[in-house]
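Worked example 2:
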Amino acid sequence: MAEPRRNTEDGRHGAHREVHQDEARLWAELVATARRSVADGLVVGTSGNVSARIGDLVLVTPSGVPYDRLTPADITGVDLTGRRVLGTLVPTSELPMHLAVYRTTDARAIVHTHAVHATAVSTLVPELPLVHYMAAALGGPVRVAPYATYGTDELAEHMLRALAGRSGCLLQNHGTITYGATLDQAYDRTAQLEWMCRLWLTASSLPGRTPTLLTETQLAEVGQRLKGYGQQG
């Protein structure tokens, strides 16, 4: 593993402790996930961010660095208080949201995007209408967290309230945030949320027609079925 690169623009010394093999592997997965979000059109440029937790260390994408330029030497890590303990690059400005999720849930990975359809929905309703049963995979109806300036504790507090009992929410006039036990799970939840938002916007756009919505009871039934979904054992 190469030594973390010094960020000369930031003017501060970062942490240069040895990077462990598991951390290096997780960093590679994190960077691949961040690049996937760009390829899939969920973010533009350096918008959005990705993180993953390993023990008390949170690996997170750095601020203002295009994902296609990230290398193993750019590994960026903080502890659960936000203190930088690994690497020299400044962590994402959305770090308060990531840390709030890790402190209050069992999350091991988080994906935050500025996905177009999800952001559009966040400006229209306080909760994504139940247009599809995959809302159950996020814990229930997806709420919209009220707007607050990015990177603030206020935004993190709004987000936590919207996430209560959920693994994802919309951020008003901002985007999405989802979490999971793995980077793949967190990313899949983000993609599902964006798809549901696109579906609702499409169905709602027909003049004189109103989309049929599911009931809470129907969604609860799906939630039970999803517990046994996929390959078991």
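The first strand starts at residue 49 and ends at 54. The chain has six helices and eight strands.
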